[in-house]
Amino acid sequence: MKPAEPAPRGYLHRQLEAIGTRVASGCEEVGRFFYILSTTLHWTFRRPFDLKEWGRQMVRVGVDSVPVVGLTALFTGAVMALQTFRGFERFHAEGFVASVLSLSLTRELAPVLSALMMSGRIGSALAAELGTMRVTEQIDALYAMATEPIHYLVVPRVGACVLMLPPLVMCANGLGILGGWVVAVNLLGANPVVYWQRTFQYLDLNDVMSGLIKAAVFGLILSVTGCTKGYFTSGGAEGVGRSTTAAVVMGSVVILLSDFFLTKILF
Amino acid sequence: MTSPSAPVPAPADATPAVPRIAVIDLWKAFRGKEVLRGVNLEVTAGESFVILGGSGAGKSVLLKHLIGLIQPDRGHVVVDGEDLTCAEPAVCLQIRRKFGMSFQEGALFDSMNVFENVAFPLRRHTRMTEAEIADRVHECLQLVNLDGIGRKATNELSGGMRRRVGFARAIALQPEILLFDEPNTGLDPLTSAVIDEVIIGMRDRLPVTMVTITHDMRSAFRIADRIAMLRDGRILAVAQPEEFRQLPDPYIQGFLAGEPLEEEVA
Ligand SMILES: Nc1ncnc2c1ncn2[C@@H]1O[C@H](COP(=O)(O)OP(=O)(O)OP(=O)(O)O)[C@@H](O)[C@H]1O
Ligand SMILES: [Mg+2]
After folding, report:
1. Reported ipTM
2. Of A145, A229, A248, A265, which is most buried, counting CB atoms within 10 Å of its CB?
3. pTM for this prediction
């Protein structure tokens, strides 16, 4: 069933066709994401549970990422303290630096920045790992051994990300606040005790919780994106490279977009 | 020609045994390039079936269809009366338990060492104890002349070793149906003969059905109950080894003699 010989095309025709191709591949991308997401959910609570693999992935995602995420948070807190101080100084509100810092860190900066870092660290690694397995037929081999690759490979990885991002963000919260405190007390001459009090004065459990919920959702997004890109890799080593880059870019963009809507929902 | 929705035709009365695997009018194209163009094939239970064909003829693609790794554009693959092309994923998974497959490039899991690779299907699908698993893995590695390399990482192996580990992994569970994609390509004659011996041993002792792809004429004639030639996306001929040698088709005669057709040289 060969398509009929295409008629000669005008400029408009070509442009429309290009747009159509873009839209189609965009839809395919979204479809793949939700295919992996739904299949992962479907298999998550099915036996056999590979507890060893879950543990391995959780260590890799959680423990091994503490330095990266911690460092990011520490310096973000420090910079935030400097910046808000410079601004608040102009209308004599230096006293609120601590409160602003703890709110913005727990609600927004710690989850989003940690997720972006993790997208670079874990999302890319997942895409590369699964992509390599795809192009070397290891995923086919799993199928051939009556093992659903999504069950064996994707479920523990996604699970580890969803479970480990909230604790990581909790660490980031603490270190970010610590960074701000160090700068405020040592460089900006804040009173350590008052600063400490102000940090928690307006901070609600809800603020922290909304940040942690965001973290879990971001963990889901970045891991499913990475796994989707890896799982549907084609075209050898170059294809793996493409998937890896795309996983980071797409993961980051989707994290930032969904952040808006999550913030709106979780207010 | 069968439309996708049509019921699977019953096996003709002429065939004495019910086919274990039936391939019916299989078509597959990759990006417009037609690789399989109406393959028909029946593999009887308990036989050793060999597929020959030129490089790039679509042998690996055909083999992957048999286990449902690739979905055809048209046609059916029926395993024990169950149509793989339209079965539910869960049913497919169940059917695949009957299979063992070794891949052309080994397809070993590079996150595991050799031992874990061979043990994988055992851990996954049996309740064997660690000791039983270790015994079985050593037995399989011994069969392919690779005893004692269990601790090696897969990237420390040569191509031929990888393929043999893949072979060991495929037979570890003693599945009912085995698919081998060029198990002895790139092996020296002696090691190649060892693989042949394993295949012949299983054929003679176990009620196992085997489909093997090979380029090696000698091993094809040693291991085969029947031989098929794949060319231009179709099965050119199927015959028992002795008959196959006598087939008048010039392409097959050229293939056996290792001489190209005159028309293709020109
Ligand atoms: N995933 C794929 N995407 C696109 N084309 C493919 C794909 N897999 C196979 N092909 C094409 O199908 C044809 C047959 O490939 P196949 O691997 O089945 O050959 P083969 O008969 O096994 O050859 P060899 O003996 O060299 O292994 C080749 O032309 C190949 O380019
Ligand atoms: Mg091949």
Report:
1. 0.85
2. A229
3. 0.86
